[in-house]
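Hey, can you fold this?
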Amino acid sequence: MSALLLMGLSGCLGRGETDLLQARLREQQQRLTEAESQLQTSQRDLKLARKETEGLRVQLAQSGQPGLLPEQSDILVRASAIKINTMLTAGFDQDDSYGDDSLVVHFMPVDDLGEPLRLPGDIEIKVLDPALPEDAQTIAHWNFTAAESREKWFRGLFGAGYQFTLPWKAPPEHSELVVHVQLKPADGRSFTASHIVNITPPVVTTDGQEVVPAGARATLKPNSNTRPSFDDSSSWLKDDVPAYR
């Protein structure tokens, strides 16, 4: 009787473990089916994105514009913004005279993770002086085609990006300026970024006279552009010769 009872109990336990194992197998099978479905959806979306990118390249070729290489198409899809490098964007003095006679602008296209991308496109750079009346705030303006800007790509110690050294066509009057950058890649999008820079307005020489812009007068020391005069020892008298003890 005891033996029969043990056999019946073992059978019940065996059926319970089998049912649990089957339930787990069904659950794993369901998860696998869902994963395969998601993979198929992702692959379909990827094929669609590649097809759209290829169609964009064909449209560019038909319009007479330079076509994109496959790696450039990938960069175009990943690009999400442009970012101005605040460490490398500043006034620049090239002629060693008072003030910054040029402006250095450094920016980079980036993806969603902030990684720099060498994305080609037309570039527009504007400089605004917020201290001027609204209709006169744009004091400098430069445009570069995608072909021209390609040569401006720079990679250095503080990062990679497009770098432009831009001489002033007309010297700024004030030290605080706003730099506005716009990049237009081949897909028709437009990425923009702005940054406030502080420069030293340059001195303008007219008819041999140095004219300091209004915004720079407060910071310019008197006679800072003239060398101090020194007595020439050849004109000393006997009593002028220093005595050493």
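Oh, and this one too while you're at it.
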Amino acid sequence: MRHSKMKMTGRVLNIVLIAACAAILPSCCKKRTFCNNEQLKVAFTGYDRSSVRTVILKRYMMGDKVMNKALDSSQLVNNTALNTTFGKPDTSWLSSYTLTSGSLQGITYGNDWIIYLPAINRTIRFTDIVEGDKRFEKVPCKDNDTKCTNSIKSYAIEGFWVESNTAYIKK
């Protein structure tokens, strides 16, 4: 009789231990999730709206010095109302433009880029984009949303080095 009670207690203890491990282990689980790349913040300043209403964004292979063969491109149009309450009325942010063709919406690390302003036939080159070191982070296994961002530290615009994550394209 004593032997069967010990067997029963041992089974109950095993079941309790298995249940505890099943409850604890998933909360301890961590997986590596890769961070999204930050987009370079781009502002056009000093232009009248008609000059920067339409923008063509072209992506090139990193280090392509000639830049004669784009990997892909997009056209973006600024349809936002003129904002005089916040900021200057002659400043347009690329992030407020609407994508009308293609899939590119902004400048990120990993490529060289050209912004073309067709209304005034102006081309602006972005090269040597340097990003931060935050490639990934550990998140709970049940978390499927990437919350980390790998920020832009510096870039070259028309060959001039800038240490910032914002580009002000002045008239």
